[in-house]
Amino acid sequence: MTMMTRRTLMQTAAAAGLAGAIGGRAALAADKPLGITLVVPSPIGDVGWGHALAAGLDPIKAAYGDKVKVTVVENIPEGPDADRIMNKTVADGNTFLIAGSFGYQNGALQIARRNPKVTVLHASGFQVAPNFSPFAAKYFQGTYLLGMAAAALSKTGKLGSVSAFAIPELITSINAFTLGAQAVRPDIEVSVVWVNSWFDPAKEQEAAKALIAQKCDVIFSNAQDTPSVISACEEAGVYAFNLNSSMKSYAPKTYLGCVSTDWSPFFKASVDAHLSNTFKGANTFLGVADKVVEVVDWNPAIPADTMTKIKAAEKKIADGSLSPFTGPFTKADGSEGAASGKTLTDGEIVAMDWHVKGVTTPLPK
Fold first, then answer.
1. How far apart are the first and last CA of the chain?
2. Selection from 257, 217, 249, 258 nearest residue 236 by Cα
3. What average pLDDT does this structure show over 68-78?
4. Fewer CB within 10 Å, N- or C-terminus of the chain?
């Protein structure tokens, strides 16, 4: 697997043309490998969103060997840079593109429309085309369970979340975290700090410290690609958890757990479909039942009776008999979120732009 940053990619392109760096137009020939490119907005590192996406490609390389060439281009900000790099990737013969950030959506969709033989997977979006599939994880299934654990361990009744951007995927994660906590302790409150960045270690650490100062004693690191929040919580003796990949090594004492994601089943199925010319764009929303979402690294301090309830809920989520978004519950503004017995549809969940009652921080306008 080839790893590139924006700087090295631009230098290589300037010196010898991007074709030499990531496969070239010859990749379209039958005797050349399938060029797969993943573009992500932050450094890959050893944890976080980008790391989980890149790890999801490893089984493809193992399955296909030299029949595929996988390139990961990291630390590419959303905007013109990303558009140029994704376009150049496709122009130079790579026909399978994974656009690994919500803000890449418009540019990636235009690429798919102009290049019908190219398959594009787009993270966290909502647009669909015949060769363009948005994909997202049902993180809320895992954050609901961790909310139950957080409520059992909290002494103050105040929980917090350092969150990247106010997009539905992260809003649903916070709401389910809150509902899971309220299932154990109805008076729980959740405060949120939006950092408006996928990768800003200093700002993330500052936000965590601000929540701790507000007496929040369990913190949810919601889509950070750095362990800054987790490390700050360990130092303060506050429980914390995160999404995508384990950060336990950064908080051996106070790590509550991880809502991990394994994208390899989805990536492998998509590559298979691309190679057999059967790929069809669809809005893909994957969770516990798909073996994409799993909570790992449960903290042993969680009371045994709470873990029994959590495991029972986890089993029901897996078999479809429990959804975190089954009513009755109320929105933060006092209106009805869902009536008793009503379960929100996937469409309603992916469009969520409101908080549940108990989240005390208004959404940014």
1. 41
2. 217
3. 95
4. C
Nearest to 286 by CA among 128, 181, 169: 169
> Residue 49 corresponds to which amino acid?
W
DSSP string, 165-188: ---HHHHHHHHHHHHHHHHH-TT-
CB 50 within 8 A of CB 225: yes
Asked if 135 and 105 touch (Cβ cutoff 8 Å), the reply is no
82: Cα separation from own chain's centroid: 19
Q: How far apart are CA 119 and CA 97, in angstroms?
A: 6
Q: Which two tokens stand for residue 3?
A: 């790893």
What is d(CA 47, CA 349) in angstroms, rounded to the nearest whole number?
Answer: 27
Which amino acid type is present at position 133?
S
CA 112, 118, 119, 120 torsion-angle sign: negative
The single-letter code of the amino acid at 22 is I
10-24, 32-46, 236-250, 310-324: least confidently modelled range: 10-24
Tokens of 283: 């809005």
The pTM of the full predicted model, rounded to 2 decimals, is 0.89
State the angle between helix axes of 80-91 and 105-114 in degrees (0 to 180), rounded to the nearest 10: 30
124: left (phi over 0), alpha (psi -120 to 50) or beta: left
The full length of the chain comes to 365
Summarize pLDDT for 49-66 with one digit per residue, the tens: 999 999 999 999 999 999
Q: Nearest 5°: phi and psi at 134?
A: -75, 150
Gap between the Cα atoms of 318 and 281, Å rounded: 25
pLDDT tens digits, 226-259:
999 999 999 999 999 999 999 999 999 999 999 9
Decide if pLDDT at 23 tops 50: no
User: Taking the alpha carbons of 198, 204, 210, 211 in that order, is the dihedral positive or negative?
Assistant: positive
Yes or no: say if 296 and 246 are a contact pair by the CB < 8 Å rule.
Answer: yes
Do residues 256 and 47 make contact, with C-beta atoms less than 8 angstroms apart? Answer: no
Instruction: For residue 257, give the 3-state DSSP assignment.
Output: strand
Which residue do the tokens 């917090």 mark? Answer: 160
- How far does CA 251 lie from the centroid of its chain? 21
State whether residue 93 is helix, strand or coil.
coil
**8 Å CB contact between 42 and 74:** yes
